[in-house]
Automatic annotation (TrEMBL):
Domain Peptidase S9 prolyl oligopeptidase catalytic: 126-307
Gene3D superfamilies: alpha/beta hydrolase (3.40.50.1820)
Keywords noted in UniProt: Hydrolase
Molecular functions per Gene Ontology: serine-type endopeptidase activity
Protein's name in the database: Prolyl oligopeptidase family serine peptidase
One example of a Gene Ontology biological process annotation: proteolysis
């Protein structure tokens, strides 16, 4: 064992490189000790660029555009999906993932770019930006609207177009997608909310009382109108964006609310589809379900963002 003294062994991955074990003898560079995922890594064909733009407030926001490898940058009128992570709060995780709920390496390998845009209540941007989501009447609005402003600027630059931009996410990301297509009904050409928070008053009453009251600034007994305005379930009839809803039957966020959201959208004649995954909870875990979910997402965005037309 003496000859291994000082050797550091660790497991690491980045968003576009598969998990590996590394060894390093400081101050030397780490060496890859495994080759288990080399084939998977070789199959992944993506590239990443940063896009920085000012939003309406004058603040600068930076996004990461994940494209098919070899694609032109800046892009010209390409299909693109804005993705938001769960939360609110927590890091925007840069993970090796090819599942629908974190489609960094999924959609770009099928010709659809993914736009990752960290906004309010994400670490690394300072205290003011962290709390901005809960200040005043911001919740359900400020990050939703800044994302819409960012997307409109991308459209104005010709990077994408209103017929080729979609939105997706799971948990708070699903809320973000659902609230976006109700607040900005004609901006996105397709949406795919998953495991979504949809009913803020119900969430307040279901054990998340303090956090929801913090975000909203008041209880629903003090301002039920705002709680409902911030709840996509009450705005479903406004949605004109073709919407694919994913939800697990055992999700702590009630599947019945997701079904009602789907019914509200489809009932007004908007193209919509709901896939309920039997036995799944908050997020899809069973590999066969994750594969089916990925196929559904790819087909939805390919059709509604123009690839199949």
């Amino acid at each position: 064992m003496a000859r291994y003294a000082g050797l550091i062994i660790f497991v690491a991955f980045v968003g576009f490189s598969a998990i590996s074990a590394f060894g390093a003898m400081p101050p030397g560079q780490p060496n890859d000790l495994t080759a288990d995922n080399a084939q998977a890594k070789a199959q992944n064909s993506v590239q990443v660029h940063t896009i920085s733009l000012a939003v309406k407030s004058g603040a600068q926001r930076s996004a990461y555009l994940i494209q098919p490898a070899g694609a032109a940058f800046p892009p010209r009128n390409v299909p693109m999906v804005l993705w938001q992570q769960g939360g609110p709060g927590g890091e925007m995780v840069n993970s090796w993932s090819a599942v629908a709920e974190s489609p960094f390496n999924l959609l770009p390998n099928f010709g659809i770019s993914v736009l990752v845009l960290p906004l309010q209540m994400r670490p690394g941007w300072g205290e003011e930006r962290w709390f901005d989501l809960a200040n005043g009447r911001h919740f359900g609005r400020i990050d939703i609207d800044e994302a819409a402003q960012f997307v409109r600027k991308l459209i104005a630059k010709g990077y994408t177009s209103q017929q080729r931009v979609g939105i997706s996410g799971c948990s708070y990301g699903g809320y973000f997608a659902s609230q976006s297509v109700s607040r900005h009904p004609r901006l996105y050409a397709a949406a795919n909310p998953a495991c979504s928070l949809l009913d803020i008053p119900t969430e307040f009453a279901s054990g998340y009382t303090a956090f929801i009251a913090f975000l909203e600034g008041k209880t629903p007994y003090q301002n039920l109108r705002k709680y409902r305005a911030d709840s996509p379930i009450y705005q479903a009839a406004r949605v004109v964006t073709p919407t694919l809803v994913f939800h697990g039957s055992q999700d702590f966020l009630p599947v019945g609310i997701a079904a009602n959201f789907y019914a509200g959208i489809s009932g007004r004649g908007t193209p919509a589809r709901m896939v309920e995954f039997n036995g799944e909870g908050h997020g899809i875990r069973e590999p066969k379900n994750a594969l089916y979910q990925a196929q559904e997402q790819i087909a939805w965005f390919r059709h509604y963002l123009g690839q199949d037309r």
